[in-house]
Amino acid sequence: MKNRTKRAVGIALALSLVSTTAFAASASFADVPSDHWASSFISEMAEKGVMSGVGDNKFAPSSTLTGAEFVTMVVRQFYEDKIGASGGMWYSAFMDAAEKEGILSGTGITAEGTISRYDMAQLMYNVLKAQSIATTPLSDPSKVADWSTVPSGYQDAVSVCYNMGMLSGIDSKGTFGGNGNMDRAQAAVVMSRLIDVCGDSTTTPTPEVPAGAVQILPGDSAITDVKNGTPIEGGYEFDTSGAINAAGTDKYASMNIKLGGKYSTLTFTVTAIEYNPGVSVNSWDNSLHPTLLTEEQLKDSGVKTGESRTFTINVSGVNEVSIKVGSRFCHATITGIYLS
User: Fold this and answer.
1) N or C: which end of the chain has fewer CB within 10 A?
2) Strands (E), the chain
3) How many Å apart are CA 237 and CA 27, to the nearest integer?
């Protein structure tokens, strides 16, 4: 009886993953309260039709996934045109497509076995490579608390997925826990991040550029002060990681831009790699440093880990502006900086 029950649950979960978007209209589930850590990701994946419930208005966020279930989500999202004739099992066509496209390379994924976080990372890494997405590893792998235990065959995947904001630790120390099994809530999160990085159409999305805008890049004379930021393509990466300066105060992640009162709008995009940083924008024209965020922006100026957010700021008459991202424990990028 136990095996039969387990098999029934497995079939229900499988069906939930291959459902069409007709089931995506209801993105609220009885077993996913609004304060659940993955609530927004689960809702997003349900609304997009990538995942759906398991019946009775439930999502089963803590239920583990099989390799076939996760592979099915990935194949339907990125390789739908590669799905051939179905074989003897419901997942045969999806597993075959994944095998032919090479995205199972380096993994130990089996159709009916659970999928580990190591194999989840490797599969995502393989998709990035297959989609010709530029990848960059962590400059300091020690940010992964248990890096020394990560098998060499998985290190590239874990490092890249961490650095690109698709993965984070399972605790405040940044422990990866690669041998742990992946559950449905985690699947919703990593699928959301993978889609964001690859783009819904498998191309990296770029924010809309304001008409007549001037792009601000590292090295431009308009940038007058950068604290704890490293130049990257199109902007800066900021990483304070709880560092304390000699005076015993937090090191800030910030940059100042000279405007000269010539512009009316500042646009920039913050991507949170870790720590859900808050964003503040202030005029630097006097010692009061008044905020330039609107009342609505002040209510919610944070960016969730693994997500990007574009800010549009009214800077009319302002000579110098300061953008600050978090304080202690900040790891984020600022890119797409435009003045118009």
Assistant:
1) N
2) 214-215, 223-227, 229-232, 235-239, 254-258, 265-274, 279-283, 308-314, 320-325, 331-339
3) 34
Q: Which residue has the higher pLDDT, 5 or 68?
A: 68
Q: Which two tokens stand for residue 308?
A: 């990007």
DSSP 45-59: HHHTTS----BTTB-
Tens-digit pLDDT profile for residues 242-285? 554 444 445 678 899 999 998 998 988 888 877 788 888 999 98
Long-range CB contact pairs, 83-87, < 8 A, 24+: none
Distance between CA atoms of 95 and 79, rounded to whole angstroms? 11
**Which are the contacts of 328, defined by CB distance < 8 A and separation ≥ 6?**
240, 242, 243, 244, 250, 251
Our CA angle for 264, 267, 269, nearest 5°, is 170
Q: What are the respective helix, strand and coil percentages of the chain, to the nearest 5?
A: 30, 20, 50
